[in-house]
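Repro:
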Amino acid sequence: MDKRYKPLSLAQQIAIRQEVMDEVLAHPEWPLPDVVRFIKKRLRLTTEDLAKLSGVSFRAVQNIERGVSAGTVQTLNRILGILGLKLGAVKSSLEA
């Protein structure tokens, strides 16, 4: 956890995790770098913490956040997996 913040109780951590998951699901239009930054910021994690939790390299997380790399589906599934989510495809509605 980012040391700039006071430690949270388990109940607070669970509540924040649920809020983050709900927010990410409510905004499928967000670009993936924004989603990764949002998750990291709201869960009060450093890039190193997010990398360790997700099993992804520090550099991969950093490159995704910066938009340097789109990341692979596997990498993004690992990052989203800390919330119990995974990357998916949905049919878009085309307007005439």
